[in-house]
Structure formats: C-alpha cells, structure tokens
Queue: 2 jobs
Job 1
Amino acid sequence: MSIRRTGRCHCGDVTVEIDAEDMFSFSCHCTDCMKLVSGGRLLGVGVPKDKVKITGETKIYAYPGGSGELIYLHFCPNCSTQIAATPDSGDGTMVVRANVLDDAAGFKPGMHIHTDSAFAWDLTHQD
Ligand SMILES: [Zn+2]
Ligand SMILES: [Zn+2]
C-alpha cells in the first residue's frame, strides 16, 4: 500500500511528490533545525528516497548533523523553502519537510527529538 502525496515550495518553482508510506516522522527541536527553519522546530517525514520525486531546480546545502555525518539539504534557490534532506551515508532515506506537503495540516509527528533545546514556552512536545 502506498500513499501518494504532493507538495511545493512557497513560490511554486519546486514541487515534490511522494509515493510511499512514512517510515517515521518527527519534530526536531535541535538548535541547527531551529536556525535552518527560522522557527521552533523542523517537521519531517522519512520516506524511501527512490519514492520521492523533486521537480524544479534546488540548491543543496551540506552541513554536519548531530553525529558528524554530512546532511544534504535541498532548498528552493528562489524562495528558500526547504524541501528535503538526505544523509551522506546514502541509506536510501530522504526526509521531506512535512510543512511543504499539501496535506500538512493533517501531519502529526511520531516523535519529538532534541526536546532539551526546545523553547521553554513551546509545550507541544510534551503531549
Ligand atoms: Zn520556491
Ligand atoms: Zn534538528
């Protein structure tokens, strides 16, 4: 069984299509994610990379994640919206940003990670 979902960046130059169930989903409150999203948390869904189709030109920003492994972050060079990221290990996983999906309103993270650095006023990770 698979679920086909679509999404797009803010300006619409980049679109994304997923044809798979989520393997995992999360809300990350680490300081890297807070800075990169200019907000309180990153919302991501982990899916098989070969089931993700990104259309339109993206720019890639590579940075070391928590384990030191490089993470390749794809974003729209026009409007800066993050689309997805892949780890350097090439384990076949791609983490698509839940907030770019058309059905983002129905998203609920399966886990909250790095809650120790979450904003003190942000209590949604405690439910
Ligand atoms: Zn864009
Ligand atoms: Zn993070």
Job 2
Amino acid sequence: MTGAVERLPRSCPLGICDGSGWIVNDDDSASPCDCRERRIRQARTRGVRSVLPAKYQGVGFDRPPLTEMARDPAARQVVEHVRGYIGELGARIAGGDGLWLTGDIGTGKTTLAMLVSKSAIEAGHSVAIYSLPRLLARIRRTYDADASELSYLDFFRRLTSVELLHIDDLGAEKSSDWVLEQLYAIVDERYVEGRAMVVTTNLDLPQLEAQIGPRTVSRLAEICGDPLPLFGTDQRYRVA
Ligand SMILES: Nc1ncnc2c1ncn2[C@@H]1O[C@H](COP(=O)(O)OP(=O)(O)O)[C@@H](O)[C@H]1O
Ligand SMILES: [Mg+2]
Ligand SMILES: [Zn+2]
C-alpha cells in the first residue's frame, strides 16, 4: 500500500516552508510551497519502488515487451483495452471497475497488470499487490495471530480499503476452507464498497471456481469485467 502524499520529508528542501509543503499566509489561508510538487513526485517514485516488484518497475507502453505486444495481432486488442483503462484511470478506480487478464503462461498478463498498478501509484492512488499464494499465506498467518503482525481485522481493513487491489496469478494453489472464506470476505467487501481490482490468471473459469470457489469467482467477475484473453507461446523462453 502506498501513502505517497503522506510521506513528505520533514524539512523544506528550499528552506521556505516548515516542511509541511504549505506556507501559512497572514490571513491564515495556506498556499502550496514550491517544494510541494517536487516532493509529491519523489514520494510517488518511492511508492512505485516500494510497492512494485523490481522486475516490473520499468514497465511502459513505449518499451518491450509492450511495444512487441502492441504489434502482435493476438495481443494488440488487449493492450489497447488496458491503454484505454489507464487513460480513464481515475474514473475507473472511483467507479470500482477493474481488469481481468487471462491466458497462457508468459504472454504478458503480469506485465500489463503491473503497468496498471504503476500508473495508479503514480497518480497518487493507494495500491496493494499480492500474488494469490502470498495473499493466502498471509491470511493463514493471521489465523494464529502473532502479536508482531497485523491482526486479521487490520489486515482485512487494509485489503478492503486500498483503492486498487492487484492479485496476480489467481488460483495457483489449493487452500483451506477457512482461508478461502476470508478471501471471499475480502473480495465481497470490495464489491459492496465499489473498489477496483486487477487480477491475472492462467486458469479458465471452471478451473478457477474449483480452486477458490464459485462465489469468489463470480464477485471478481462483477468487479473486473470480462476476462481479456492473452494466448500464445511462452515468451519467457523465447530466444531473443
Ligand atoms: N508478447 C511478448 N513479446 C516479448 N516478450 C514478452 C511478451 N509477453 C511477455 N513477454 C516477456 O515474457 C516474460 C513473462 O511475462 P509476464 O508478464 O510475466 O507473463 P505472464 O504473467 O502472462 O506469465 C517477461 O519477461 C516479459 O517481458
Ligand atoms: Mg504472471
Ligand atoms: Zn517547502
């Protein structure tokens, strides 16, 4: 989760304001200090670094693999769909509309989803990114809640309140009923509150239903819309 705007440093780099990024005028109104824009930009860069996995921090429409995907007849439409989503990002996130990327392994699903998350962080939205196995493991640990970790309730609140929840690799493993019930509770709460999600999976709907339950899959489909298909050969092992 990012707190891009909250994480401003405490002293003004220009020596003008008190470090808050604001100058209080004689009439008690406040004006933004010249340091503010710059520091918000820096905080967003830090947000990208702390939330996005290192491998995906440089993702962009203007560089491979997205430039290659945009030329590929099998992937082009999905790339354009995601470009359209990012073009209306603020409204889409506010409306609780997400994205669902499905298809074979190594076709760029995670890359596209990471670009959505990167764009959201840069626009100042709060974002949490988990692979499903990591998320389920994290939920499982709250069961025997250790005092050093967030309690389940705090973790639940964090996952339901973040503006964009990105879950990568849905359905990668089987899990206990209790854990799957908590996953449903998180997804259902986001659905009820109208909060956006981005998901990727290489399973089709029946396979996914068998792994995480039909109720969760149906809620995800309501939030994320029709699965965008990316099929083809695994580009990970392609000889450059
Ligand atoms: N169409 C493509 N052309 C070239 N490289 C690609 C393409 N799609 C994906 N890649 C590369 O393949 C690897 C896997 O991409 P990733 O987004 O993790 O795929 P997925 O999530 O679908 O398994 C990455 O290194 C990515 O840069
Ligand atoms: Mg992936
Ligand atoms: Zn300042």
